[in-house]
């Protein structure tokens, strides 16, 4: 049985079409991804000793079946993790 593998990316992305707090379309490099469904959403606390506030993480599945964890921190969106 193949286990899911992920890699941390943490790069900024361009986001369009928010539905509530969830991006509907985002651009990673030169490629646009359309969110097909939201798998999960949670809040992680930042490092209190570094004065970091909470951040929102959203796991999404795109139309082309790619799985991403997107992170909203300091008023910006990032790809936090990519799942293979």
UniProtKB/TrEMBL annotation:
From the Swiss-Prot or TrEMBL record, give the protein name: Uncharacterized protein
Report the source organism: Alicyclobacillus macrosporangiidus
């Amino acid at each position: 049985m193949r286990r899911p593998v992920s890699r941390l990316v943490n790069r900024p992305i361009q986001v369009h079409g928010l539905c509530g707090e969830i991006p509907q379309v985002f651009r990673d490099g030169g490629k646009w991804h359309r969110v097909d469904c939201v798998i999960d959403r949670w809040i992680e606390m930042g490092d209190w000793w570094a004065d970091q506030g909470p951040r929102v993480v959203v796991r999404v599945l795109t139309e082309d079946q790619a799985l991403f964890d997107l992170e909203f921190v300091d008023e910006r969106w990032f790809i936090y993790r990519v799942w293979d």
